[in-house]
Amino acid sequence: MSTKELKAKTEAKEHKKTKRASYEYTPLKDCVVGTDQTWNFYAVVLDATFPHKSFRSDRFVCQMRIADPNSKFDSDGIVQHCTLMFFARRFEDLPVSQRVGDIIRVHRAYVQEYKGIKQFTSNIFFNSSWALFSPNQVAKTKAALADGNNFRPFVYFGKSFSFERSEHKIITACREWTAKSFQKHKVLNERYITKLTDVPVAGGKKEDDRYYDVDLQVKVVQVFKLDDYSSEIRVVDASNQVWFCQVLNLKYKYLKEGQYVRIRSATLEHHEKYNEGRSFGFKQYSNILSLPAQSLLVKDMAVDEKKVINDLEKALLTQEQTIMHPVIISRPQKREGDLTNLDKILSYTEAPEGARFLTRFTVVSVYPSAENLIQIQNTKTSALRENKGALKKDEKHVLSVVFLAEDYSTASSNQFAKIHLTEGAAQSVFFKGVKIDDLLKKKATRDRVHFALKQIERFNVWIEGTVAVNKRGQLELVETELKEY
After folding, report:
1. Which segments constitute the Telomeric single stranded DNA binding POT1/Cdc13 domain (predicted)?
2. Tell me: the pLDDT tens digits for 402-414?
């Protein structure tokens, strides 16, 4: 063989190695059961377990329910679904889907039938692969659209992924199907959804002393960060009952207040003694999946959220026992930006005047006492003095309070932040409806404010608001008001 022929043969081999594989994607209904053939397909995720160790082998597993734009609906508007099983040697090789409507692409999956439902099996430890795409259009600008950002997976198996322009059409079809179907139909079966009022019975003990799992469909009304690792969430459903549970921040990092979600496999195991406090927990395979915001399922959840939460917090604040669940007694009218913990705020030693931070804190101590809340302020220098003697030029009466505050970030270091509240208007914003003149003259008004301050000092009572750096370099509470119960 000549040198030229050898070179040509080598180049042909290299080209064959580097040549991108071309995949043909088949609708789920056309994937034939009972053959040794493997299938490539796109589908919409309707439900998913969290990846976990198998109970029967040393593999890690994940199960999904999927459909695609060719799937049929029954007379109740429930889509005909398939199941998808993933098997892998490592946890990190499996997909984590926590959003109903995620689009999944699978290569080289086998198909069979299990209990009358078409079931796909993806063996990641062999040669199968997957990629997850957002159900929403990510990019908005023309430049980003031209760059193809809308069609890139947000996570995939392997070091790289292949993608052809023809797949744009499939992803777009899946997105359009998801948006239209969830607005027009329920899509998901609610037969096995348990109302929160029925959880104590439906999630009770079996004869073998194990507990039944329950699936929930709820609205997340509060996410309260307990520390860097965990948060407590407060949920409510159409039965207008509130329940609590603790979640891991890393596992559920996309969970937000205001979301409507499906909770898969909640349990009362290890939580039976907290039934009066309405708390549930999770199994290793449990998952929380957000529902599409513009969906019929969400519209059908008639939740009287404001009244339910108001009644709950009022009950917690009026009880004599220790408050076990966080109560945010004060919030800003307009919530802008993300929460910043006190440790981070205090680390800004040279924060410029006017720098603002949205934060959440609990009050360890309040001073001065309710009898001495009114002080005299110089309008030019902002200096404060005791309310003694007549007002001088450029002086006015102001309500002045100092909160000795902490949060989870400062509690372990025994570090506190001094947060000042100074109000010079005729009527207080923080103590809603309280007039400055009435604080000077009326004992009933002082008693009302004194009671509010005592509530603020209670364990697990929190203030959320915007703090700003004032002229003297102090932290000033500028935007928040106490709730009225």
Report:
1. 25-179
2. 999 999 999 888 8
